[in-house]
């Protein structure tokens, strides 16, 4: 079964309430391909490797979390940007990208999906009442040492995380997928025992140690694989389309 690209985009925009969120890039349809859609390939980042995989899979739409046209980047279509766009256009593949709207969605979002896999009960926003801080906070069914929780993270995400304060006893957790290390200060104010995100900055270590909080950097890519999968599955089910998630590993 095929559906119109315009219908797919309209439903995804509606579902994620994309127009409501101010972001660093355009959300929604970034590159327009063929007008009918039968097959969606999803992935984290619209890299050349993922584009090549989508071409091989004969995708009509490439659905990603990290697309193109970021604020502040060089606007010229040269180098790798030219090669990526040329490949999409040559094969008539649409690029559909959702950044912050996919981080914050209450069911399909990266942060909620990550919590489900790690066994965290979602309780509130990291900073209640402040939508500009996109992290969440919640609790574990029973307390663990931070080192024990880090072992769970490694098992679920398939990569060893960076861990600060492994002996800290943990019951309340704050988290923000991707590059949310700057939110550790909000996590400290929220009173959680551990803050988890994708990346770390040099000062993150000192914030964790000096405030007696455990910290885990589990990988930007690794923590943001699940929202786009959930979104792809929703669209496939809603429109009776084919969907395939393709993971192009990234150690960052």
From TrEMBL:
Looking up Pfam families in the UniProt record yields: DUF34_NIF3
Q: Where are the transmembrane segments?
A: none
Metal-binding recorded as keyword? yes
| Keyword annotations of the record | Metal-binding
Which PANTHER family does this UniProt record tie to the protein? Answer: GTP CYCLOHYDROLASE 1 TYPE 2 HOMOLOG, NGG1 INTERACTING FACTOR 3
State the NCBIfam families in the record: YbgI_SA1388
Protein's name in the database: GTP cyclohydrolase 1 type 2
Species: Pseudomonas fluvialis
């Amino acid at each position: 079964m095929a559906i119109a690209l315009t219908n797919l985009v309209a439903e995804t925009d509606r579902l994620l309430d994309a127009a409501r969120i101010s972001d660093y890039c355009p959300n929604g349809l970034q590159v327009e391909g063929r007008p009918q859609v039968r097959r969606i390939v999803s992935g984290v980042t619209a890299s050349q490797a993922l584009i090549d995989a989508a071409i091989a899979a004969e995708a009509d739409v490439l659905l990603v979390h990290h697309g193109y046209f970021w604020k502040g980047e060089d606007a010229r279509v040269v180098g790798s940007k030219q090669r990526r766009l040329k490949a999409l256009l040559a094969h008539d593949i649409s690029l559909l990208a959702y950044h912050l709207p996919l981080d914050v969605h209450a069911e399909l979002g990266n942060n909620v999906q990550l919590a489900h896999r790690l066994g965290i009960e979602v309780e509130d926003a990291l900073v209640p009442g402040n939508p500009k801080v996109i992290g969440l906070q919640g609790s574990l069914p029973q307390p663990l040492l931070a080192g024990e929780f880090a072992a769970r993270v490694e098992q679920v995400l398939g990569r060893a995380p960076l861990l600060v304060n492994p002996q800290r006893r943990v019951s309340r957790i704050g988290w923000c997928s991707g590059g949310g290390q700057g939110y550790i200060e909000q996590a400290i104010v929220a009173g959680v025992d551990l803050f988890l995100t994708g990346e770390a900055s040099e000062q993150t270590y000192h914030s964790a140690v000096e405030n007696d909080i455990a910290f885990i950097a589990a990988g930007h890519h690794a923590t943001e694989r699940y929202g786009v999968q959930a979104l792809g599955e929703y669209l496939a089910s809603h429109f009776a389309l084919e969907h395939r998630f393709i993971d192009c590993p990234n150690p960052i």
